[in-house]
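Hello,

Our lab assistant flagged a job as stuck in the queue for most of the afternoon. It eventually completed. Since we weren't sure the result was trustworthy after the delay, we are filing this so someone can double-check. Below is the sequence as submitted and the structure that was eventually returned. Let us know if re-running is recommended.
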Amino acid sequence: MRARKVPMPRLAATIACASVIAGFSPLAAQRTGSAPAVLAGATFQTWRFRDAATGIDAVTLLTAPFQAAVRLSDRIAVSLAGAWARGSLALADGGRSTIAGLTDTELAATLSAGHDLVTFTAIALLPTGQARLTAEEVEAAGVVAADVLPFRISNWGSGGGFGGSVAIAAPIGEFGAGLGLGYVTTRDFEPVETEPSFVYRPGNQLHLTAALDRSVGPTGKLSLRASLLSYDKDRVNDVNLYRAGNRLEATASYAFAAGPRSSAVIWAGGHHRAAASPENPAAGTQVSPASDILFAGAALRMPIATGVITPRIDVRGVGGRNGANSGYTAMVGVSAELPAGGLVLAPTLQVGLGSIEPATGTRSTAVGADIGFVVRFGSR
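-- returned structure --
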């Protein structure tokens, strides 16, 4: 399969997805006529620590995602995406904590115009998740949400919200260029089960994304993407609490033919999260410090029989202030796409090693695994 430049309609849809904070289901971007595209599956992730420096023996996450999309016309598509998840934390002292339930659900509608060069997206984040947590659930959810370990979800619920985006794509000389702007408003919710009077509202979110791609040689394609995520002030009981730090991310990838029928892609990028700004520093509010994430990887897509097999490697490093809450993970694995009648079966297996520094001067090594199986219908 020859690597090729992404056509403008697809680039516009990609930017539109990235411009909405949660992003609607990628199935919605598929041109499936009037037939729905459906995805369901399950993924089991686990990380086990070899010593007690983190205070954690093991953390596991079972995720069951579901997605559905239907194109109502040549210009309008609707999608729904969500997941059920169960996180479990086993502490080195024998304690355990668990959280289980639905995450928030995304409902999105897209409208393309101008020969697909402009894409409008409206999204509703339905509050179907676990927005109110017990102390035990907070402990497990906090570990899953940490940047150091690459889990598939980061929270069970955030109270829901509404938003939209617009994306524009156009050729500029030999480049394909895209620009997207999105905004999401949030809702009040009560995150602490034992304190119903504690009403929290995350800050509204503004997302700006830009992308470029260019053909390189007869089969290659170079792509660049950058995004900025900015937050309004978080509020507690209608009083400003703090403003989360802006997030900047940049990614570069190069796709190319790797034989008569195979293709490969390599990528690298970084993510910077600025320190949060307390509204009243004298109050002693604990907020997130600045952190940086660097990531890189490579994948090879090879046809086998009627399907496709894709070995890949991912490396990820996280750096926190003064070395705390930092570490790295390296994972290697393989996935496949196997047609079976009108279905596509997509198993995945990855194993990894990691090193985590939960506090300055303490470090723990970890081993991990990611095993999944997804079934898709109506989209390949």
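-- support follow-up --
The delay was a queue issue, not a problem with the job. The result is valid. The radius of gyration is 21 Å. The mean pLDDT is 84.
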